[in-house]
């Protein structure tokens, strides 16, 4: 992987993290029992809308590091009809604008204003951003990227990071949910991680069968394979840790018993960045 690709690792992972937060926030606002669910608003560091806005801001800034001449970035919008890259940039703008409006108006979980509908629009813009991002990379001349794994991995990254963020916010008291809801969302997180394990192994098998040529990457040995195995090990260990929590009598009893969420959050973030590093390291081109 080229050193300049690190900016794309941060751009894609952080922007998908932001979308995941908003998607889960929309779900919680519309489908959680309002008696047992609340969320911080305003300039509180526990405000999920603020966190999502900061993540997309950092992601967008990091993307400029990949450009040879950042001043030419606005010109990318000139080809919306035929370029998924142009549509991706447009989606970032729409998504960011929606978040700014929701943040400024102020989200109220009790539905006393209409920002929850703006939140849904933000989620729709976020889904469009994920889809455009996936289409940018599904290029026929890059076989490692041109597969079902690209959109699936982007989606699971978004859902996984967004959900673990809410579990962390719950431990900080910035988001409130009861123990039953907590177990459900921990179980959902385990299901997403298992999907990442299964899809990761299937994609790795596909990569190992590819003819990358003389100068192409090697997928079944070396640094790439070691990182893949390390990521799978982290995913497996994280799933086991979360399953142990599900079978405990209580998951969210008192704040001093919630220290488990921080190492789990660290493991989830590390493996997602490792997965994205593997994605860009798998690059090789065929044809012209």
Give structural notes:
With 288 residues, the protein is mostly helical. It has one domain (5-281): Formate dehydrogenase/DMSO reductase fold (Up-down Bundle). Helix content is 65%, strand content 1%. It is built from 8 helices and 2 strands, in the order αβααααβααα. The protein has a two-stranded antiparallel ribbon with strand order 1-2. Helix 2 (48-63) runs antiparallel to helix 3 and helix 3 runs antiparallel to helix 4 (115-137). The protein is globular, with a radius of gyration of 20 Å. The two termini are 20 Å apart. Residues 251-257 have low confidence and may be disordered.
Quick overview of this protein structure:
It contains 8 helices and 2 strands. It is an all-alpha fold.
List keywords for this structure.
288 residues, mainly alpha, Formate dehydrogenase/DMSO reductase fold, two-stranded antiparallel sheet, 1% strand
Can you count the helices? 8
Q: What Rg do the Cα atoms give?
A: 20 Å
The profile of the biggest β sheet is:
2 strands, antiparallel
CATH architectural name: Up-down Bundle
Element string (H = helix, E = strand): HEHHHHEHHH
By CATH, the superfamily comes out as Formate dehydrogenase/DMSO reductase domain
**Would you tell me the overall average pLDDT?**
82
* The number of domains: 1
Helical/strand content category: mainly alpha
Q: How does the overall form come out from the CA principal axes?
A: globular
Helix content percent band:
55-70%
Q: End-to-end distance, in Å? A: 20 Å
